[in-house]
Each structure stands twice: as structure tokens, then as C-alpha cells.
Amino acid sequence: MKKAAGILCVLLKGIFFAGFSVQIVLGVIWMCANFIEVQQFARPQGFLYPCLTDVLAGAPQIVYLLQLGLAGYAGYELLRPVLPDGRAWRAWYVLALLTVPVAMQCHLALLPFSFAGSLFLLEFVCFRNAAWGKKEGGFRALAGAGCCWAVLALLLPEYGWLGLPLPAFTFLAVLLRLRGEVRRLVSGILLFAVLSCVAASCAVLTKKAEGSERTFWFSMASRMSWPTIWEDSVFWPPELLDGISRETVLETDNAPGNMERVLKPAVEDAFGKEKAQEYYRMMADVACRLRWPRIVRQIGWDALIYAIPLAVLQEQLKGIGYESCSGRNYEIMGISHPVLTKYYMSYGCWWFVTALAGTAAFLILAAVSGRKPVQRKTWVLGMGYLVSAGVILVYYVMRGAGTADYMDTSALSVVWTAAALFCMGEKQWR
Known about the structure:
Mean pLDDT: 85
Structural class: mainly alpha
Largest sheet: none
Distance between the termini: 20 Å
Order of helices and strands: HHHHHHHHHHHHHHHHHHHHH
Strand content: under 5%
Number of domains: 2
């Protein structure tokens, strides 16, 4: 039994190699074909990224190179523990991560999601180095995680707190390894405090530049009420409808983004920001009472779109599910080369699901064959990542209905892919 399991593990590694090789070829062809193109997305908000694109106006290819370079570096550092000898093999492993379709679209788009995904991966690398590496490198890992956190907050203001868990886990790992060393322990605490202040300041700066504010109850109203807000308005208090008009409600019902563009300013202009929170809460309560099963299904769909987009994208393109940004993203991605994009994305979706299944099978077979594919320190890292990814998923899923965009969490797809590459490259099985 153990011998058969070992043989199947070797067979799965061969399947991984073949499957990722096809993805790399398609991804590199798509990248070369689209390198001189500009995907027509709206101008990004925030502070740092618009400044970068303004400085490099007229030269988007430089931005693409920067994004591909940082993504390649993040992928290299993420896979470093299992990278084989030889530059060609190492390049192959990195390209397997770079050519994940949803990540590749981000790398060749003038949007902050490529940089954000790469910095999130580097945060995880810093956490791993603090937990696994030499004790002397703990402060370097903590400083690295804090710098990534600060830049993330400048790119996307929500990462002022979404980016906090991994630096916090890095800080805890450093503290646990410095027990008894009071001077260095105090230095670590002060360093984390300074980094926290820097990241918080960056988030505030970016939020002011973006010029928008989403409160908790507005997010709940957006999550629960759309796309049935017109039907729900029958149960709203008359003074609310008198203040904003039924035409505003009808226009809001037309598109999910109108919750923020149309309804939010109408309610807050009529009643003020504090009173508006009561109405947002009422909208969410009404929607939950009337159709909570539908809301639960929509939340489930959004969670899948953010967590494993390639596993559900083909179903979405067939009209299964409900409103999201996936169709828009796919259409923009394929404007210049629709046939190539179709084959690249179709294969990427199929291979992503196959690789996930292969990873699960590999871990089971490795355990049966008597090996230890997952050690205790790996479980610690896995739990740290799951908590961090869970915080990100909850935020994006609950901020509104119909606005799910897989580009927000493209790094999660890269991590799933990295799991298969870790199985393939684990040194004890090579």
C-alpha cells in the first residue's frame, strides 16, 4: 500500500509538471500579445498608485514591468523553501505563479491589485521567516512586514487594517523567540508600534485622497438590500421615501454600484450622516426579514468568487450565479485577443480545479505512504494565512452585493497554486 501510494505521488508530480507547463506557455503568449495594450478599466482611486501612473503617463509598459518584477520576486520568495537547483527550474516555478490567469490580468492592468497581491504574499513570507528562520533575522522580518503593510495602506486604504494580521503574527513570532532577552524584546515592541503608526497614517492619507467613506451599516444595507431594493422600499417608512424620492430608489436598483453613487449621497444629503445610519440599518433589517435564504446564497457565491474565482468563473460566464464584475473583467481582458483569452482562461479554470484536486490527493497519498507532508510548523503558518485570508474575504464579501471582483483577491488564487507547487517541489520527495 505504501509503495503504491509513493508511486502515485510521483505520477501526480508528473501531472503537475505537464499541467503547469501548458499554463505557462499560454500565459506567456497572452502576456506578449497584450504587453503593448491597455485594458480599459476606470482610473484607480487612492493615493500612491494614481501618482505612479501619472508620473509614468504614456508608458504603461514600465508599470507592467514593475508589477511583473515585484510579482516574480514575491513568487520566488514564497516558493524559496522548495525551489530546486538550476535557474531554468526556478524560473519555471516562478512562471507557474505569474501565469495564473486572474493574476496575469492584474499584472498587465493599470490597477493597484497586482502590487497589493505581491505585497500580501511578501507579508506572509516575512511571517514565515520570523517563525522558521534564524532568531537574528526576526527584526528584519518584522521590518519587512511593516513596510509591506504601510505600502499596502497607501495603495488600498482598507489594507490599513486588512493588512494587519500577518504583521501582527510576525510580531508575535519574534516576541516568542525573544523570551528572556528584555532589551531586544522592548526594541521589538517599539518597532512594531512605530510601524503600526506609519501604516495607520498611510491608510488615513489614502482614505482622504480617495474621498469616500463606507460605514458598517451602509455596507450591510448594500450587502442585504441589493438587487431587491425597489421591492423592499414598499416596507420603508414614508419619511425616507419622501426625502429621497422613489425615482432615486428605482435608479439605485439598476446597478449595484448605484448604492454608493446614487442612494448614499441622496440619503445623507436629506437626513445627515448620523440619521442615515439608522435608515441603512432599517434597509438591511427589512431585506433580511423578507428574503434571507436568497441573501445567504448570494453571500456564498461572492465568497467563492473571491476565494477560488477560477473554479466558478466558467459557470458565471454561462449565466449561473448572479451579478458580479467577473463578466466585465473577462470582456475587458479579451478585447484585443478574444480567441487567445478564451483558450487561456478556459484552460486556466480547468487546470486550477484539477490542481486543487491533485494537491488534496497528493497530501492524502503522502500520508498513506508514511511521509509527513504537513509538519507542526507548517500548521502554524497555515493557520496564520487562513486567519489573514479570512479577514480579507469577510471584508470584501460583506461590503456589498453584486460588486464581487476577483481582482481584489487575486493573491488568494496564487496561494492555491503555490500549494500544488509546494507538493511538487517538496525536497523530501525529490
